Amino acid sequence: MLGRSRGEKTFEVFNIFLLILLGFATLFPLIHIASKSLSDDAYVLARDIVLLPKDIQFEAYKYILGNDRFAGSFQNTIILTFVGTFINIMMTVITAYPLSRKRFHGQSAIMVLYVFTMFFSGGIIPSYLLVRNLKLLDSIWSLILPGSISVYNMILIKNFFMSVPDSLEESAKMDGCRHIRILFSIFLPLSLPAIATITLFYAVGHWNSYFGALMYMSTRNKYPLQLFLREMLIEESVDVVDVSNLMDVAPESVKAATIIVATVPILIIYPFLQKYFVKGVMIGAIKG
Amino acid sequence: MFILEVKNIIMTKRKTVQQTSQKTAQSTTIKRERSFFKKEILSNCELYLISLPGLIYLILFKYAPMYGITIAFKDFNIFKGIIHSPWVGFEHFIRLFTSAKFLQVFENTLLISIYKLIFTFPAPILLALLLNEIRRLTFKKTIQTISYIPHFISWVVVSGMFLDILSPNTGIINRLIKGMGLEPIFFMADKNYFRSVLVVTQIWKEIGWGAIVYLAAIAGINPELYEAAIVDGAGKLRQVWHITLNGIKPTIAILLLLRVGNLLDAGHEQILMMYSAPVYEVADVISTYVFRVGLGQMEYSFTAAAGLFNNIIGCALLFSTNYIIRHFGEQGIW
Amino acid sequence: MLYLEIKGLKFISKKQKGGFCMKKTISIIVSLMIVILAFSGCSTKDATNGVKDGKKDVGQTEQKKDTAESTKKTGDKPKIKMLVDYNPNVVNFKTDESENKNVIYDWIIEKSGFDITFEVKPKDNPDQKVSIIMASGNVPDILEISNKTMYSNFANQGALTDVTELVKTAPNIQSLIPQDSFKAIDIKGNIYAVPRPPEDDGYGAGIYARLDILKNKGLKNPITTDDYYNVLKAVSDSNKGVWAITNNGPFLGGFMGAFGVATSMKVKAGKVVYSYTQPEFNDYLAYVKKLYDEKLLDREFSVNKGAGKEKLISGEAVMAFLGFPDTKLVYENLKTKNSSAEVGYLDLPKGPDGSQGVSRSAPVIRWFAIPIQSKNAEAAMRYMDWVCQKDVQQVLALGFEGVHYNMVNSMPVQTEKMKDITWRVIYQRLENGTFDVRLKIKDYWPFYEPTMKSPLVENIAGFVPAIETVDKKANELNDYVLEQSIKFITGERALSEFDAFVKEYNVLGAEESMKLINEWYVEFNKK
After folding, report:
1. Hey, is the C-beta of A5 within 8 angstroms of any chain C C-beta?
2. Most C-beta atoms within 10 A of its C-beta, which of B135, B323, C225, C353?
3. Where do the structural domains in chain C lie, given as residue ranges?
4. What's the confidence (pLDDT) of residue A182?
5. In terms of pTM, does the model score above 0.95?
6. CATH class of the domain at B90-327
C-alpha cells in the first residue's frame, strides 16, 4: 500500500505475465481434448482439431453417459472417495500425532517401521491372498483398507504437528486435557492447510484409482469410474486375427470424452478446499 | 476477533506456566520427579493407545505380506506359490547385472533422475512463491486451479499430445523453428533432445500440483513477520528470501528428503509412453528395460528382483540423507 | 521477540530424551506382530496346503477321483466356472444384465445341462490377474489362455491338468479342431489344453492407398518393388508435407514379404534360421533406406504408434499397410473429410526374385486349459465338447433365429435386436466357422475380402513351442533388430556393417536360441 517501488511494480507485471503464460500452457490441453470430444471423428483422426471443435456432435458423450453402467460406476467412485478419504484422514491424523510428540518414546523406532514400508512391499500376490483371507474380495473395503495410510501424507502431517509450539500442549496438559482432546481441539484446527492438502491428495487418489479394483473386483457393476472408463475406450489397433473384438461403435472422440468425464469432476473440488489454504487462519496469530 | 481472544488465552497460559514452574521449583525435588514420571507414563500410554490402529494396520497390511519379497530370490512357480517355490539365491540379480544393457540402463536411470531432481524439484516452489505474491485473489485462485490440470491427464494422453506438438512434420514447435529459418528438430527421436523433453514435460505436468503443498506451508507463515520486515526496510526480494523461503524450509527439507528416497524412480510410465526405439539408448531406464525384456513372459521373479534393487538403493539413500540432515541439526523424518 | 522465546522453549525440550520406554515399545510391537502374523499367516498356509494336496494327486488318481465325484452329481447340474478373455462388448450389458444373467446365458444353462458361471478378465493386465487367481488357488474350471508362454509355463510348472486322454472322449471337439492344432500344443507327448485355431489364416491386412492421387498422376497400380518405387517417387511431395508411404516402425508390411523376410524365421536347406541374419534382410533394409533417403517414407516412421490411418485421412500420407478394421475407418472418415478421395487396396509388392506375401497365422491362438486344482475336469471337458456342436455354435454366433436375425436367401441378416446381444462374444470362445458370416453382418466383408488375394508365407515360428532359453531372450533379440533396423534405414549406421550386426545379434543370444530351435525342428520334422 505504501509506496511500491518501481522495481516492485515491474516485478508484479512480469509475474502476472508469466503466470498467464503458464495458465495457457496448462489450460490448452484440456480445451484441446474437450474439443476433440465434441468433434466428428473424421476431423479428430485427421488431426485437424487444435482449439475449437469441428462439426459438433455429442455422440461420444451419449455413448458414455448413456451406458447403463455409467451411473453405477460413478456412484461407486463417489462412495469410495468420501468413505475412503474420511478413513484415510482419521487414520493418518491419529497415527501422525503420537509420532510428533517429543515425549513419545519409541517414536524413532516406529517411524522407521513406517518408512520402511514406503520402499519394500510384499507384492501383489501376498496382498491378494491377504485380502482374500479377510473375505474382502469383490468388496469396496478391499479398495479402502489396504491403503488406509499413506506414509508420505502421514509424514507431512507429522511435520506440521511438530511445528506447533510446545507451549500449547504444555498449557493444555496443565489444564488436565488428555491427548485425544489436545489432538482434536488444538492440533486439528491449527493444521487445517495441511489437513486440507492431504484430504485433496487422498480424495484424488481414490477418484483416480483403478488398480485395486482391477485386482480385487470380479463383478463389473462394482467397478469404479476409472475402470469403467478404461473399458469404454476402444483400442487403436484391433487384433486382426480375433474378429470377435470388433465393436459396433468406434468413435475416436470417445477417447477424448472419457478423459473429460474422468477429470472435470475432480477439478471442481479444489476451489472448495481453497478457503482452507487461505493465509493466516489463526496460525500466524497463535505463533505470535 | 477470535484471534485476539486466543492470543490472550495463550498469553495468560504462559504466565500461569511460568508461575507454576516457579512454585514447583520450591518444593522437594524427589516428589517432583515421581509425579513427573507418573504423568509421563500415563501420557505415553495414551499415546500408545492412539497409535494402535495405525500399528495394527501397518502390521496387517504391510508387514504380513512382506514374505512376498522372497519372490525375487526364487524361481516362482505359480502352482507352488511363493512360499514353496524353489530358492535360486541371487540368480535374477546376476542376470540383471550381467545383461548387455545393464550399465547403459543404470546410467540412464541415474542421469534422468538427477536431471529431474535438479529441475523439477524447485519448479513448484518457484510457482508457489510467485503465486503468493499475487494480490488479486480471483486471479490467484484461477491460475492455481488451472495449473494443476495436467496432473490429471494420464501419460498415455499426454505423450500423444506431445508427439503431435513436437512432430517434425506438422508440430507447432517445429513450425515456429522452420519459420525462424532453422532445420526442424525431431525431438522424440533425437538422442540429444529426448531427455530434455522428458524433463520439460514432467515440469509442465506436475508443477501446479506440486505447488499445492508449498502454498499450504506458506499459508502457515505469520503475517506479522512480513510487517516487521517491512518496518525494518526489507525489499520484496529479501522478504521472500528471509521470510517465505525460510518459513517453508522444513517443508522443503522433508519433501526433498522423500524425493531423494525416490531418486531411482525416473518416471516409468512417462518414459514407457513417450520413448521409442530410436531413443532407447538415452531413455531406457531399469524399470522400462525390465518391462520390455519380460513382456509377455510372466517373469515375476525377475521383475521383482529389479524392483527390489531399485528399492534398496532408494531406501539406503533416504536413510543416509536423513542421517546427514540430522547431523546438521535440522529436523529429519525421525 | 515472542517468536524467539518460543523457539527457545522448543530447543530446550528437544534435549530431553529418555530411553526407558524403548523396550516397552518394542515388546508391544513384537507381541502385536506375532498375533497378527499368526492370524493372517495361518490362512495363507491354508491356501498353500490346498496347493500341496492337489500336487500329490497328479496323474491318474485325480482323474479317477473326478469321475467319481461328477457321477455323484448327475442328479443336479455340475457346477463349473469359466474365465474368459476380455472383450470390449462387455460394456454393452444393460442394467439388469450381466455375464451370468441374460437371454443367451439362460439358454446355455438350459440346454447344456451345466451350472456354469462366467467371469471375464479385466482389460488391463489380464495376464497378471490370471497369475494371481492361479496362485491363490481360487481357480476356474476352464481357463482361457491367449499367450503361448503362459500355456507352456503353467503346463511345465504342473498347474494344468493333463487332458491327453480326456480330450479323446470329446467327439465334437475332435471334429471341429484340426489335428494340426493339437500337434502344435504338444508338450513332450502330452496335451494340457483344448486348442483353438485362428479364424483367419493370415489375411486381413494390405496396402491401402489413395487411388485418386495415383489416377491423377496417370499411374498404374504398382506390382513389383520397382513399380512401387516409381509410384512412390511420383506421388511424394515432401515440400507440401505429403509422404508417399507411412508405417509404424521399420518393418513395412508387404515389403518384407517381397524380400523373403515376411516371417521372423524360415527354413533354409533343411534348417531353421532367423530371417534377420540372412542377406535378404540386407536387401530389404537397402530398399527401405532408399525410400527414406529420398523422402518417400514418412520421417516419423520410427515413432509412429498407429498413426497410419490418421495420416491417410489427413492427407499426410498416400498409402499405408493397414488391417481391415482400420481401412473401414479410413474409408468412412475420408468420406466426411475429403469427398473426392478414393481409397482401395493395392497388390502386395513382388520382389526381384518373385517373393510376395504375408505371414500365415500361427496354428493356435487360444488355449482352453483346466487348472489342476479344479475338481471338475471331466465336466469341464464335456461342456467344451457341448459348445463345439454346430447348432450351439450357430446360436452363440448369431443369437436366436427370428429374434436376432433372419435367414434371407440362406444368408443371415441381422435384426434390430442383434445390437442388444453384442456381448455374446464371451460365450463363443471355442467357435470356429461363422467368421465370414459375422464379418458380413458387420459390413467388414468388403474390407476383408480383397486382402484374401495376398499369398500366405508359411511360418515355422508358429509351431515352435515355448522353449525357456529362447523365450527369455526373445524380447531382447527383437528389440535389438528393431533398434538396428532403424539405424540402418536412417543412416545412423552404415549398411556395410550388416555382417557385424549379424555377429552381434548371434552373440546376444540368437545363435544359442536357434540351436535349440533346430534341435526341436529335427524331432518335429520326423512326425
Report:
1. no
2. C225
3. 60-200+364-433, 205-359+449-526
4. 81
5. no
6. mainly alpha
